[in-house]
Amino acid sequence: MNKWTGLSAAAVLESRAQHGANLIPTKKLTPFWLLFLEQFKSLVVILLLVATILSLVVAIISGVNANWLFDHNLVIEWTQPFVILITVLANSLIGSIQEFKAQKSAHTLKSLTQPFTRVFREEGLVSLPVGEVVVGDIIFLEAGDIIPADGKVLQANHLRCMESFLTGESVPVDKSVVNTGGKGLLEQTNLLFSGAQVVFGSGVFEVTAVGLNTQVGQIVKTVDSSATKLSPLQQKLEKVGKWFSWFGLGLFVVVFLVQLGLLGFHNFSANWSIALIGAIALVVAIIPEGLVTFINVIFALSVQKLTKQKAIIKYLAAIETLGGVQIICTDKTGTLTQNKMKVVDYFCFSNTTQTDLARALCLCNNATVNTNGDSTGDPTEIALLQWLDRDGLELNHYTRVYEKAFDSNRKLMSVVVQKDNRFIVIVKGAHDVLLPLCKGLDSNQIKPLIDERASNGLRNLAVGLKVLYCFDPENTQTVNELESELDFLGFVSLQDPPRIESKAAIMACHQANITPIMITGDHLKTATAIAKELGILTDERQAILGVDLDPAKIMEYRVFARVTPQQKLEIVNAWKQAGYTVAVTGDGVNDAPALVTSDVGCCMGQTGVDIAKDAADVIISDDNFATIVNGIEQGRKTFLTCKRVLFNLFLTSIAGTIVVLLGLFVLGEVFREQLSKANHNFQVFTPTQLLIINLFVHGFPAVALAIQPVQEKLMLKPFSTKNLFYNRGGFDLIWQSLLLSFLTLLFYSLGMVYAINDPELGKSGDLINRAGATCGFMVLGGSAALNSLNLMVDRPLVATNPKHYGIVWLGALSSIFVFLLIIFINPLGLVFSTLKDLTAHPVLIGYSFGGVLLYMTINEVVKLIRLSYGSV
């Protein structure tokens, strides 16, 4: 080590100025306040804020005109802007809180990197923080070290590195001064890469790239430049929200001007306020205020469920995208398999016993496994020790006197151990190299046994020995003749075995019409064997090496082996361009570009590197493929719940808009004479009433639908996120909206007719309007609340067991309870413009509940008719 001369202080400064620092910027947590402000980008939210300001202006003007004497009308006007504002703030808080929580959860899973490394500088070998390494530095490495930068090997003493995070290959790579590997950058054995771990030996290398100029850094640049993903539902809702907003804005202007014209320009201040409140009511009716709020609530509840199931969702919308996944491009090592080598078979030759084989493998081994399960060393050697029962092997009777370490050229490791006066030479290594070194052995007897196991993706390690009665480690001739004239003991077969849950998870994918695809850096035979065992592959012709990949035929294959990061990206893009929703799993730096490009990137939480976690949308904290499948099922339930809630939201928005429009220009004219006699300007529903319907009516059922356990076998049903209201949904929305608006207007009118003919109510235009509003309010809101029960199942409610849907029943009845409080408790009735002392008018109560029952009855009849024709 002393022969290496490092950089001077001046050279270090010059190198850092020219090539930069050895730092890769990590993504910082987005501040909560910024997440909160980002919620206000939506056009729907902006329009509601404008409605808040206009309502506040109306309230201020009304207050000035009334000399700030707060009668019930002024109370109502001052209530409206704050109700709208609370709606906007609640939505923004829910979304920002959940995204901040998910962001923090993902951040805590990030691993800590090695803070120091040993560097040759002009003063000798010193320990420095990794960030101070510069191009030109000479670094000393030994087992356990993390390589701090990219570089070129200057000295290698049986140096082996684990580069799986970058290449995807789970076997350590032998490093050498001269390249003995392929021409590809990651295949060259004389190059080292930042982030790789030294698992054996020692070495020295010269730094050639630091920070963002390393291979890891280049991938980070790709990840950081990626665009934000939107889920299918988000994309649709963004369009729907804009449509509702622009349509509402247009109607707002038209209705305001038409109303102002009808009311006249005399007494401008009062008429302006009336016209503006009517126009605001229309905007509130058109815009489904709960659109974002309820979707965020449903997403948040689903995210919490998945967190308990070991899946951390970084962005709320990822849960819904996960439900629509059609293709899963999954890594093999650690995701489908256990990510640890295991002896799965062995063969003892001739008179060799398992004890003889086990003892030889223990003695020719440099790994250590502690009683608490901690291990160090080469993964293959660790697997050998974990397979063996060492208690009866009497290993303390043997003393190692010589070792000839494994190297990639010989593909052998040899040791000499002494017991009493005997020296025992033990050699293990690749069967094709070791078998010719054994005496009196017909390799044709053994080779078919090994080939059979190799064809099943198993790695085979052969063992032989011989006994010497004298041994001089200083005698070169004796050392060179060690690996000859061996007695063959047998071989062991190793594999990184599949996880127990993986096969069932793959079967669930096939049942759900989801295609699992294996993309790995491992060997083709190994990948094919695992894929066949798990059910990913049925025909070996569907497995291909990365170098043989034809981009035009990507979708013909189900297994891709020895794949580069660029090829993995090509595979993902091919499926996406064909119109499929693609999920990708990964844990290494090499996986980051594909994780970003996919619709849903799933990073392994235990083995995943920070860059991969930053790139992913979902972090699988137990590194289990089955967890992803559970996430897809939860995602499907989430989308189905969102669809049901959105149906109800759009139902009340469309029906409410029709009611407000026809109420202003039809009912207002029909009852103009009676209302004018009572000195009252007609107004259908206040903005506050409509907000109560849009929030509380849908709020409780929305939460209930999200909590309600799935009754349907969603993974066995056809599923699509492309059409929001597929399978009759659009038609049902239209006819139910027309039905609900008709019934609301009908019972609104009946309520007003009753009040006009009532001796007490008929004296006041305000009471006449409140009587009609009470009936219409209950019909519109109560019907929408109970309609969540209709949406819950396609069958008639009379044919379902309420116990199976108890939570949804509770949610719907909670909404009805809110309505009962409003219409029966006087102070609330005052604020929400309903009639006080409703118990004195049982006819109005009958109208209110009669309209709701009529709506539900018609729905049940339609379902029964469909059931009779087998279309449910």
Automatic annotation (TrEMBL):
Organism annotation: Mycoplasmoides pneumoniae (Mycoplasma pneumoniae)
Compartment annotation: Cell membrane
TM stretches of this protein: 43-66, 78-97, 243-266, 272-301, 645-668, 688-710, 731-751, 771-793, 805-826, 838-858
Main location: membrane
Family from the record: Belongs to the cation transport ATPase (P-type) (TC 3.A.3) family. Type II subfamily.
Name the record gives this protein: Probable cation-transporting P-type ATPase
InterPro entries per record: ATPase_P-typ_cation-transptr_C (IPR006068), ATPase_P-typ_cation-transptr_N (IPR004014), ATPase_P-typ_cyto_dom_N (IPR023299), ATPase_P-typ_P_site (IPR018303), ATPase_P-typ_TM_dom_sf (IPR023298), ATPase_P-typ_transduc_dom_A_sf (IPR008250), ATPase_P-type_domA (IPR059000), HAD-like_sf (IPR036412)
Cited Pfam families: Cation_ATPase (PF13246), Cation_ATPase_C (PF00689), Cation_ATPase_N (PF00690), E1-E2_ATPase (PF00122)
Membrane topology label: Multi-pass membrane protein
GO molecular function: ATP binding; ATP hydrolysis activity; metal ion binding
